[in-house]
Design goal:
about 55% helix, 4-stranded parallel β-sheet
Length: about 180
């Protein structure tokens, strides 16, 4: 039996989940179905800063909400892939070919290099991904826009424990 193709998820899809946007249920269904089939969910390293940036700059969320979102996504077991020079060149080619931002092109280049399916709510990016794009709700792919104000669940003592765990993992990975 062949291993299932990985699933690359971009920030628009992940934000839909953490902000409970319209497409949240559809994104979760796709991701859970792929994981149940044994697929890995992968993201480029810029994913995490893009999530943080969108929550702070676009959605005006305070630090504790950003922390909760990062912790929630981290708990899903996403595999973070570093973008090496070959990835930068592949992303540059995608930027030029599809007129994408460098950030969007990085997701597309990762999906192509990993031979992965691609989950995004960005219509233009889904079109550039072609058959790799996972359709949601009869193929409709869109990015919702709304104002948000979330109430965090995480406490500062939990935040300290989370920071410690993240630091330990990061140090361990840097030693490899």
């Amino acid at each position: 039996m062949n291993a299932p193709r990985p699933l690359v998820i971009d920030a628009s899809a992940a934000l839909a989940v953490v902000l409970n946007e319209d497409q949240s249920d559809a994104v979760q269904r796709v991701a859970m179905a792929r994981v149940a089939q044994g697929a890995r969910i992968v993201v480029p390293e810029l994913f995490w800063i893009e999530i943080s940036n969108a929550l702070v700059r676009r959605h005006r969320q305070p630090f504790d909400v950003v922390l909760e979102a990062i912790a929630t996504l981290d708990g899903l077991g996403l595999i973070t892939v570093q973008t090496d020079r070959a990835g930068v060149l592949a992303a540059t080619a995608a930027m030029l070919e599809h007129e994408l931002s460098g950030y969007d092109a990085t997701y597309l280049a990762l999906a192509e290099s990993a031979d992965a399916e691609f989950l995004t709510l960005d219509r233009g990016l889904a079109e550039a991904a072609g058959e790799r794009a996972v359709p949601l709700d009869r193929g409709e792919v869109r990015e919702a826009h709304a104002a948000y104000r979330l109430k965090p669940w995480i406490t500062w003592s939990e935040a300290a424990s989370y920071f410690k765990a993240v630091r330990e993992v990061t140090l361990e990975e840097s030693r490899r």
